[in-house]
Amino acid sequence: MSIRIIKTEIFKNLKGSVIKIISKKNNHTKKVKEVYISRVSKNYKDWRMHKKMNCLLLVLKGKIEFQWNENNKIKKKIINSNLKNLILIKARTNFRFKGLNRDNFMINFSDQFYDNKEIIRNSINIK
What we know:
Helix content: under 10%
Shape: globular
Strand order of the largest sheet: 1-9-6-11-4
Mean pLDDT: 88
Oligomer: single chain
Distance between the termini: 19 Å
Number of domains: 1
Radius of gyration: 15 Å
Number of strands: 12
C-alpha cells in the first residue's frame, strides 16, 4: 500500500492533551531529516511523486483532501485537524492534495533533505 493512515497517541489530561507524533517505537520517524509546515490552498497541487522521500504528514489546522494513484485508480482520504491521524506517503507514490477550509496547514516529517530534482511532477488521467 502506497498510503497508510497511522493513529497518533493522545494522552488526555484535565489541563490539556498531549499528542505523541515522534516515538522511538515508530519506524517512520526514526530517519526524519527535515520538518516543515506548509499552508495548503483550496486548489490542488500538481500531481507529484518523490523518487526517494517518504512523507509523514499531520494536518495542524483545517481539512485537507489527499488523492493518490493505487492500481490505476484514484483513491482519496480527507484528514482534518483533530490530530488523530498521520498520513504516510511512501516514495514512488503519485499523489496530490488540496485544502478544504479557508486556512489549512500541515507539517511534513520527511526522511530526505528537500531536492527539487527528486520530485517528478506529472499529470494523471485516471478516473
